[in-house]
């Protein structure tokens, strides 16, 4: 039983690292496009939201696959 708990803890830790690293990449990508978004076009903002949510979905799918 201790083996199963250890393996589960490692998997959770790897998923956590993957998620935090992915969110940091997405946050930096968004931060680098701050001036682009401040110009106020709705299409730009919508595109950035689509990219961000797609990235989050990719993170969740990869964690599920792990």
Total number of helices: 3
Low-confidence stretches: none
Mean pLDDT across residues: 86
Q: What structural class is derived from the secondary structure elements?
A: mainly alpha
Distance between the termini: 21 Å
* Portion in helices: over 70%
Q: Give helix and strand order, one letter per element, not per position.
A: HHH
Beta-strand portion reads under 5%
Largest sheet: none
Radius of gyration: 16 Å
Question: How would you describe what is shown here?
Answer:
The chain has 66 residues and is mostly helical. It contains three helices and no strands. The chain has helices spanning 2-32, 34-38, 42-65. The longest helix is centred in the N-terminal third of the chain and has 31 residues, at 2-32. It is elongated. It starts with a helix and ends with a helix. The mean pLDDT is 86.
Sequence-ordered SSE layout with sheet pairings:
Layout lengths: L1 H31 L1 H5 L3 H24 L1
Keywords:
single chain, 66 residues, mainly alpha, 3 helices, 91% helix, 0% strand
């Amino acid at each position: 039983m201790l083996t199963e708990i250890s393996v589960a803890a490692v998997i959770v830790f790897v998923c956590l690292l993957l998620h935090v690293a992915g969110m940091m990449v997405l946050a930096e990508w968004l931060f680098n496009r701050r001036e682009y978004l401040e110009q106020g076009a709705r299409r730009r903002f919508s595109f950035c939201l689509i990219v961000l949510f797609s990235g989050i979905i990719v993170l969740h799918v990869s964690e599920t696959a792990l």
